[in-house]
Known about the structure:
By secondary structure, the chain is an alpha+beta fold.
Amino acid sequence: MANEDQFKKVISHAKEYGYVFQSSEIYDGLSAVYDYAQNGAELKKNIRDYWWKAMVQMHDNIVGIDASIFMHPTTWKASGHVDAFNDPLIDNKDSKKRYRADVLVEDYCAKIESKIEKEIKKAQKRFGDAFNKDEFVSTNPRVLGYQEQINTILKRLGQSLEKEDLADVRALIEGLEIACPLSGSREWTEVKQFNLMFGTKLGASAEHAMDLYLRPETAQGIFVNFLNVQKTGRMKIPFGIAQTGKAFRNEIVARQFIFRMREFEQMEMQFFIKPGTQMDWFKHWKEERMKWHLSLGMGEDNYRFHDHEKLAHYADAATDIEFKFPFGFKELEGIHSRTDFDLKQHEEFSGKKLQYFDHEDNASYTPYVLETSIGLDRMFLAVFANSLVEEELDNNTTRTVLKLPAVLAPTKAAILPLVKKDGLPEIAQQIVDDLKWDFNVTYDEKDAVGRRYRRQDANGTPFCITVDHDTLEDNTVTIRHRDTMEQKRVKIEDLRDIIKAEVDVKHWLKKMQ
Length: 513
């Protein structure tokens, strides 16, 4: 299935099965604003919990906070967002559509990457089991040529943006003959900077209201609370502060479903460290975060690191963990060495000392910060899109199955009475009432049992438990596994342990060790 067709199917399936709805749909919706439906809210919560347990609960030196969305406006002056939180904007003269200039160039490079993928697939077909992907990618002249082309383009883009040479960004777009996706026109305006923050006001009357911003990131709430957390928690360097929460950006081009939205959620951890140790911690957190992603079993080939050509002015190292979405490899998580920029900026603008006294060195210093930041909505999309598959079955039929990692699945088990009589629904309801103390389970009695299996497959439910007439005799039920469709006869009293073995967070996070 073509990637574009697959992505359309992802969006359609998300709505049909109660995962994501267009916000305010009855009023024709809002662009790039979405609501998480009944199953989507559960999946999102489970991803958030999985991150929190791995990041906070499993680390003695990391604690969590929940800072307010509203912050004093000077916060954003200190952080640099007021003056420099911009995206390069370009308009097409014919279609009148507005685009992010850097995204146009990145999409152009993604098309070159798709050519590399085609070369790899052709070679895999030609050489079969003898195919060595790493050797092919590093030696094939055509692949190397494509990669060199990508590297050259992105390096120039990065340098131009770093120098704020917007004229050269436009020259790059024109030199690559990039056309407007809508009209096919290559008539472009000058590139301009566009601030992404949403403004609002705080106060009972317009004349006395204070101008505020909806926060564009969650990190600053951590930085301004650094000393409060350190002192009240008696934290010793190195230590981390984690947070999940909403952020808001007035994106020029918000697109690709929930990948880029104007209201989104972040999962961030700022790790405060001794100056001079940042490269060791940078390497450590790169490894730790990749282990977390791989623990979900979504395929090692679907991840890669992408080191930044263009570093933010405050950073001395930065990399992205990219995931292979249906529309190509895109950023999923950022890992940044932010030096001491943030705390020093807030010291300067607030006039308050934000330093750490190191008893071992008998000296005070401003800690450096190592950041890990992942978009919860992007993680949701990565999990959902990767899990949605169509399978050819032995009987020449197909089934649509959402193979969500069982630890994240909204509903862990569906309890199905074979028929709606003979006391079977009552036993099924008893099983529901017993299991729901430990798991999110559902009861389903509508349609033939085979059709119910297919419905639960498409909904991502790992287990179906069928109560039949033999249950009346021996207190056993049939448990069916979503991914293998294997069915086993088990005792009702064993159901809890069987399900727990598959969905327990401990079972999944231990893969990181």
